[in-house]
Write a structure and sequence with these properties.
Blueprint lengths: L4 H13 L7 E7 L3 H13 L3 E7 L11 H6 L5 E4 L9 H8 L3 E4 L5 H7 L4 H15 L4 E5 L5 E5 L6 E3 L9 E3 L4 E4 L6 E7 L2 E2 L3 E2 L4 E6 L2 E6 L2 H11 L8 E7 L10 H4 L5 E7 L13 E7 L2 E4 L2 E5 L2 E2 L3
Parallel strand pairs: 1-2, 1-3, 3-4, 4-8
Antiparallel strand pairs: 5-6, 5-18, 6-10, 7-9, 9-15, 10-13, 11-12, 13-14, 15-16, 16-17, 18-19, 19-20
Helix pairs in contact: 1-2, 1-5
Length: about 325
């Protein structure tokens, strides 16, 4: 059989991004929505000579919802875990606990064949270098300010917070992140974000933005959300999880120069020239809020200031 573009993307993910060694065991966790990609990863893991196990769980209702307990325990028995599912397992205790034991985990939330092929065609060595460079800048910064032509003007305090470089190369014990990837992010200090951000790219749980969603932030919480139908939809999703769901959880900068906006947040938040701000859980990134929801909103053409210094101007990243 001929090697398809999807096969090539799977091989890149397993061999290059995860850096799998010959005798390492791989677990693929998928659901009924994304089982075609789950199957492709499993088959290519076998072709590469790995012991690979494929399990299918029922699709979760929300990003950050835990898998069944038996699956969470099962994850601890493998060297590498790949998770192509409809909803993200990145911000779950199951993933965190497996990572703490040294398991390398890649999550592929909302993955499609097109996103898999496009997103894994990038040069991950270049992405890694850019992403790590940005991490150092994050960690020497106290106050981030983001402005954009759409009315965004928000400040977030990231003083002393560890930044994370989702560089696409998860070769060390316990490393994890999304694939495809390319972003640097941190959790702003709880209660210390203020201003307005207007999501005009895409939003988790909502998709590509049709009418911008205006989010007014006071002391670290999204107190007012306005816009069209998508804004109302977002409010109804957040209301199911209580006040913690409105926590300003993450500030991130995309570093993948091959990524394009598609409506799938997995790739959208990685688009170079965009930033994203997330609501909800930040426990996975060194924060204090543990809630089973994490929703990212992408902002196009932002200008970003780190302690007053411009690091992105109108969507052009100046740190490359």
């Amino acid at each position: 059989m001929a090697v398809t573009k999807l096969d090539k993307a799977c091989i890149t993910a397993i061999r290059d991004c995860m850096g799998t060694k010959p005798k390492e065991k791989i677990l693929v966790i998928t659901d009924e929505v994304k089982k075609d990609i789950g199957s492709a990863l499993h088959i290519n893991a076998l072709k590469l000579g790995h012991e690979s196990v494929l399990v299918e769980i029922k699709a979760r209702e929300m990003h950050g919802e835990e898998p069944p307990k038996v699956i969470a325990e099962f994850m601890k028995n493998f060297d590498v875990v790949l998770v192509p599912t409809q909803k993200s397992m990145t911000h779950t205790n199951a993933r965190r606990n497996a990572s703490a034991l040294g398991v390398r985990v890649a999550t592929f939330p909302g993955i499609t064949e097109e996103v898999m092929i496009k997103g894994l065609s990038a040069d991950y060595k270049k992405i890694a270098a850019r992403t790590i460079k940005l991490k150092k800048v994050f960690e020497s910064t106290k106050i981030v300010r983001v402005t954009a032509p759409n009315g965004t003007d928000i400040t977030m305090d990231i003083s002393g917070r560890t930044a994370f470089a989702s560089k696409g190369l998860f070769h060390k014990k316990g490393e994890s992140g999304n694939l495809p990837t390319g972003e640097t992010f941190a959790a702003p200090i709880e209660g210390k974000s203020d201003g307005i951000f207007v999501v005009d790219g895409s939003m988790s749980g909502v998709g590509i933005i049709e009418e911008p969603i205006k989010i007014e932030v006071i002391k670290g919480y999204a107190e007012k959300i306005s816009g069209g139908k998508q804004a109302k939809n977002l409010i109804s999703i957040l209301d199911k999880y209580g006040r913690k769901a409105r926590n300003i959880a993450e500030f991130g900068v995309g570093t993948n120069d091959k990524a394009k906006l598609t409506g799938e947040l997995l790739l959208d938040e990685k688009v170079m020239g965009t930033i994203h701000i997330a609501l909800g859980d930040n426990k996975s990134m060194g924060g204090k809020v543990n809630v089973p929801i994490h929703l990212d909103g992408v902002i196009k053409k932002p200008t970003v200031y780190f302690d007053g210094k411009v690091i992105m101007k109108s969507g052009k990243l100046l740190i490359v």
